[in-house]
Amino acid sequence: MDYRITFIIPLALAILLAAAGCSSPEKPVVTPNPTTIATPPPSTVATPVPASTASTVPGPVDTLPPGWDLTVTVEKGGMYTRTIIARFDGGKGLMYASRMDVRVTFPDGTVKTDSIVKPKMGDTIEILGSTGTDRVEVLMLMASGNTYRIIDQQMPYRNKD
Predict the structure, then answer these.
(1) Could you report the per-residue pLDDT of 86-116, keeping only the tens digit for each?
(2) Number of domains present in the structure of the chain
(3) CATH code of residue 117
(4) Per the domain annotation, does 131 fall within a domain?
């Protein structure tokens, strides 16, 4: 067997491969021209303030669309505590829930709110209530853009009588 042939064939293949890699056209580098966009000055929108205080009387609750059922549990943190705990338990509409808002209205009409964006099962919101009877509302913002009041109830404070 001739060693020259076994040496020349791989050498020729290597030269052809190198030539093929070097002969491909190089992509031109394109730098985009910077564009300037005029930014309008920020505008402030006045938020109307209600003349009266918020109501402590529960109202009607909304029904979620079929297949979007969700469960939220609202309870006091213990027998003699003012802490109100709202726990998101999930449901069939879990993937459609965008935000859970909890609103607590005190007997004097003041309101405390807290929210969770894209709630997951087991997420909780804790709000310190009053020593009276508080109104607790749970509102769910769904992926459709609609907001549903799914809980609206009164939570009394229990004294150590």
Answers:
(1) 999 999 999 999 999 999 999 999 999 999 9
(2) 1
(3) 2.60.40.10
(4) yes
